[in-house]
Amino acid sequence: MTTVFICREQFLLFSPHVCVKTLVKKKETPESSGIYCDTSIDGIGTCWPRSNAGQMISRPCPEMFYGVRYNTTNNVYRKCLANGTWALKGNYSMCKAILHEERKSKMHYQIAVIINFLGHCISMVALLIAFFLFLCLRSIRCLRNIIHWNLITAFILRNATWFIVQLTMSPEVHESNVIWCRLVTASFNYFHSTNFFWMFGEGCYLHTAIVLTYSTDKLRKWMFICIGWCIPFPIIVAWAIGKLYYDNEKCWFGKKAGVYTDYIYQGPMILVLVINFIFLFNIVRILMTKLRASTTSETIQYRKAVKATLVLLPLLGITYMLFFVNPGEDEISQIVFIYFNSFLESFQGFFVSVFYCFLNSEVSRFSLIY
Fold it and tell me: Which regions span the lipid bilayer (predicted)?
């Protein structure tokens, strides 16, 4: 009776996964017909239930040992030998200290931060080159290229505010929740929104020209300026008012549980993204059926624009949708999520520059002339 009492005390200290009733009712268990290993607790505090000889038994790793927490989803193994005695030691090699896992996660996070920073730097350089190419090559300023130019400008401003956020938003600033840091957050979200609305402008232009078969001469630059620059502004103002009254903390980054003010600007972004997918579906359908045999220069330009948009829109959409995806508790899933998200989010501007400027035949042709 004394032995059982000591084992229960060890259990309470070291392993909450052990069944106390197994130990207390040990003598109530019917005797096995063959050789077996009796219920036992090892020096770590893990309870090994009564088992037949020759079996390999698994138990959850201890939750805590000498003040160090362990991952209880892994198991420890111990064999019941043929002579009815337990192996001298259990195999605890799969039991990993959570502190070690946290260090590994921190290392991957730091690498992802470096990828994110380098990606934004490369994107910024590419975007600035593309911006000045459109600025200098006035002869190619048709409405289509003006839309490309504004999309690139939106990405430049979004990347610029991203750098400002990274350089100024220290933990102390977050806690102080000063006015200027809230304005920086609002500016970042505004320019982030303009990226999606200018992509929507790209979709509107192609849909009007190809699906609706309207002359693009009827389209005006001010229409797209309203879509790309003006519409996001009242949306962000409404979001800022919501934050001010319901979630006015930590420079408006993150969100309180049960407060959904961020959907004020995230909702319209998702909406225009969905509409763009519908546009692209119609555009591709028309191109595959009606314009397959056409070889006019205008049709070729449309096809190239559609190819660029087909590549860029999923890049933008997938990246944004990843923020709503839970990678789960699996360590590998979390690492893949961190790297994948960091790469796509930081290199968006680079892809925009490549597809809408550097691979633009008009830009390439006139760049060689000048």
Answer: 109-135, 147-165, 196-215, 222-241, 263-284, 305-325, 337-359
pLDDT, tens digit, 9 for 90 and up, residues 84-131: 888 888 888 887 765 555 556 678 788 888 999 999 999 999 999 999
| The two three-digit tokens of residue 179, written as one number | 């006015």
Domains in the chain, please, with CATH? 2-79 (4.10.1240.10), 98-369 (1.20.1070.10)
Interatomic CA distance for residues 57 and 59, integer angstroms: 7
Q: Which of 112, 138, 53 is nearest to 87 (CA)?
A: 53
Query: How many CB atoms neighbour CB 226 within 10 A?
Result: 13
Model confidence band, residue 154 (pLDDT cutoffs 50, 70, 90): very high
Cβ-Cβ contacts under 8 Å for 146 (sequence gap 6 or more) = 221, 224
Radius of gyration of the chain (CA): 31
Tokens of 85: 């005695």
| CA distances, 191 to each of 161, 197, 250, 251, 326 (Å) | 8, 10, 20, 17, 26
Give the amino acid at 221: K
CA distances for 8 relative to 47, 50, 317, angstroms = 10, 16, 55
Q: Which two tokens stand for residue 345?
A: 């989010």
What residues does 65 pair with on adjacent strands?
Answer: 68
Strands (E), the chain: 36-37, 40-41, 47-48, 51-52, 56-60, 64-65, 68-69, 75-79
Strand partners, 91: 77
Q: Report the interhelical angle of 331-353 vs 98-136 (nearest 10°).
A: 10
Q: Which amino acid is at 69?
A: R
- The number of CA neighbours under 13 Å toward the Cβ of 299 is 11
CA 261 to chain centre: 20
Where do we find the tokens 């106390």? 20
Other Cβ atoms within 10 Å of 222 Cβ, number: 9
Query: Residue 108 CB: number of other CB atoms within 10 A?
Result: 16
Nearest to 314 by CA among 208, 203, 239, 204: 203
For the entire predicted model, the pTM comes to 0.69
